[in-house]
Amino acid sequence: MEYLVLIITCWTIGLIAAIPIGPVNLICIRRTLQCGWKYGFTSGLGAALGDGLFATITAFGLTAIAQLINGFSMPLQIVGGVALLIFGIRTFIAAPPSRINETFSPFPEVAGAKAANGGNGCGNGKNGGPNGKNGVTNGGVKDDAKSRARGMASTFALTITNPATLLFFAAWFTSLGGLADDPSFFQAAFAVLGVLLGSATWWLVLTFSVGKAHARIDDGVVQVINRISGVLVGLFGLILLVHVGLPHLL
Predict the structure, then answer these.
(1) Alpha-carbon distances of 81 from 60, 162, 167, 236, rounded to whole Å
(2) pLDDT for res 215
(3) pLDDT digits 0-9 by tens, 25-42
(4) Taken in order 84, 89, 92, 95, is the CA torsion positive or negative?
(5) How far is CA 248 from CA 108, 164, 225, in A?
(6) What is the full DSSP assignment across 81-100?
(7) Can you list the pairs that 171-175 forms with residues at least 24 positions away whose Cβ atoms lie under 8 Å?
């Protein structure tokens, strides 16, 4: 019963950590609209793994690693800020993926046939092809493990370049009596598992909900989303860089 309460509590902590709308949320929303909810969810799992890493460092009391991360806080923030700026600019200027309606067609066989002449803008095909070798499959979206892995890696990298997340988990775990002072191995393990499940739950709900709303989204809406997302993500990066360079201002 003790472990059940612990995992539910840490599930809530993981959920709270993932919910705030920040650059990773915007990135996953855009990827879901462009490439489908599975691709967006996979990208979200990268952020969940980042949260899990910080939770592991905190729950298992890996003080040396925590101090190392804090010691490199400024370089990590600079890297994260530059990455967000670049991603924001690329998102702002990106054109809507070709055949967005076919990509999100409710009839996969029709979508696959129509998409045979071109890619979907997801980086999963350039020339198209009925056999899916040079084009797209599975309802207009190629099921490319490498592409999903790259998407997951990018959100994981953005998550771990924010040391404030480590402080977030340290504050929460300190407030939990069982983890505040010399937790057992199983207590720490269940705490990390709870955080991972909580974060993953948010990404599943977010991407699945956005994916279900695709029927109301056309190229014009996607273009607007690209513009807004690009500005907001870039703004996050700029704020981060200003905070590093001029900490007294922020």
Answers:
(1) 29, 10, 19, 7
(2) 63
(3) 888 988 888 888 899 999
(4) negative
(5) 54, 17, 33
(6) HHHHHHHHHHHHHPPPPTTH
(7) 172/13, 173/55, 173/58, 173/59
Measured CA to CA, the distance from residue 191 to residue 141 in angstroms comes to: 36
Q: Please report how the helices 37-59 and 145-160 are oriented relative to each other, as an axis angle in degrees rounded to 10.
A: 40
Choose among 187, 190, 167, 169: nearest CA to 179: 187
78: pLDDT strictly greater than 60? yes
Q: Tell me the torsion sign for CA atoms 54, 161, 36, 233.
A: positive
Q: Long-range contact list for 171-174, CB < 8 A, 24+ apart?
A: 172/13, 173/55, 173/58, 173/59
Indicate if the pLDDT at residue 95 is higher than 90. Answer: no
Hey, where are the domains in the chain?
Answer: 2-245
- Phi-psi region for residue 205, left (φ > 0), alpha (ψ -120 to 50) or beta? alpha
**Is the pTM value of this prediction over 0.70?**
no
pLDDT, mean over the chain? 74
pLDDT range class, residue 172, cuts 50, 70, 90: confident
Q: Model confidence at 16, in pLDDT bands (50, 70, 90)? A: confident
Residues 6+ away with beta carbon under 8 Å from 207? 28, 29, 32, 37, 38, 40, 41, 44
